[in-house]
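Supplementary notes (optional reading)

For those who missed the lab, this is the record we used. Protein: Formamidopyrimidine-DNA glycosylase. Length: 281 residues.
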Amino acid sequence: MPELPEVETMRRGILSIIGGKVTDVAKPPCARRPILLAPGIAAFRRRTVDRRVTAIDRVGKRVVIVLEGGDRIVLEPRMTGLVLVADPPTREHLRWEMSLADCGVEKVWFWDRRGLGSVRLFSEREFVAEFSESGKIGPDALVISWQELRDRLAKSRRAVKVALLDQKGVCGVGNLYAAELLHVAKVHPATPCEALSTAAWKRIHAAMVDVLQEAIKYEGSTLGDGTYRNALNKDGGYQNCHRVYGREGELCRTCGKVEVIRIVQAQRATFYCERCQKVTL
């Protein structure tokens, strides 16, 4: 589930390790489905121990730990992964840990209940090839201009909600925030991209930035299953601000006139208000 606001919260939650020296990297015993860990732990340890952390970045829905010399540890939470500096929710789902000195933080953990996430180590050149030159990742949702957003998506015949989930077009937006931002923009989620006007693209872009920044301020959304937690193993707060997501059958919080509707698009649940989000451009 973690999308841009949750992953950005994870990134900010481990900023205190900058300047710290890696003293060990380990793969805790885990009887659950294994995550992707590359390279193997022995090679991982050789390339990271005694290196200092120089920066903490983010690429879309991934936290990036930059080490002196240019190597980068990329932590991808996928559905249920967490990046933590406090005690994890459980020990049985710990997948990776990094011990540090000289920064006030003893360990960074990667915890993943379902085992769909990954921890990968890249050289600087490998990182650029994978995340900049491959075309797999589009511009970040908080950086892209409205013109580029329009130019990258406007020719598509796909529904705008579905197109926003394609990380090649714009990265960081997932199912939850796509529904929320389209509600704020007053755009019906089934509208084909090619049918949207320039004014609609401007509204979508403005809503995307506003919703994501607001969600970051509240440290992301912890849904009913309680899986998402910040780096200190605490709930986010933005779930209390959701306008439509997960509110099927409730009165729309914007208009207060009609109930929120749930439909399925590309095998994902979409929530919207038919009064606020009419099929008009």
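If you only remember one thing from this example: The chain has two domains: 4-133, 146-272.
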